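Can you please make up a whole protein chain along with its backbone structure tokens because I've never seen that pairing?
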Amino acid sequence: MASVELSATALQDLDGLIETRSLPADARERVKRRLELLEAFPRIGRRLEGRWHNYRVLLGPWRWMLFVYLVLDEEDRVLIVTVQDARAADAATSE
């Protein structure tokens, strides 16, 4: 099983989304439960293209929330590099 970690940037992104999107008090617990999926299935998210081609993406507990991550095989871990709102023009899934 892979370990799943959030980068400092991803933690800041998550805090910002919790605040600006008025997410419920249990938002962090929902995120944690969603990310547990990556422990057993690190490649479950689709591979991104373009400038994000080395990354994968997993939808969060809300349909608009994206977890952009790297699979680090040699370290048996998954690193969440950013948490984004898929509706934003600069989201990793935007063209």
